[in-house]
Amino acid sequence: MITDDDLPQPKPARVARPPLDLWGVAELEGYIGELRAEITRAEAEIGRKNAHRSAADAFFRKP
């Protein structure tokens, strides 16, 4: 018998989703700026991880 514990669990939300309809234009623009800054930070981390992976691949590559 399959129970709820056997089913895949949904991933938790990483970013809270505020009620945007309650915000004014200036607040929305500020929120977009914060999101863009977080995207830039995540992209920089991806770049660092890819660089580390490339270095490791080059080091352990068979001759």
Structure description:
The chain has a domain at 22-63. Helix content is 57%, strand content 0%. The protein has one helix and no strands. The longest helix has 36 residues, at 25-60. The chain is flat. It starts with 24 loop residues before the first helix and ends with a helix.
- Please provide the ordered H/E string of secondary-structure elements: H
Oligomer: single chain
**Mind telling me the C-alpha Rg?**
20 Å
By secondary-structure content and strand pairing, the structural class works out as: mainly alpha
Instruction: Please report which band the strand proportion falls in: under 5%, 5-15%, 15-25%, 25-35%, 35-45% or over 45%.
Output: under 5%
Largest sheet: none
- Low-pLDDT runs of 5+ residues are none
The gross shape turns out to be: flat
Task: Record the SSE blueprint.
Elements: H1 25-60
Question: Which terms would index this structure?
Answer:
mainly alpha, 63 residues
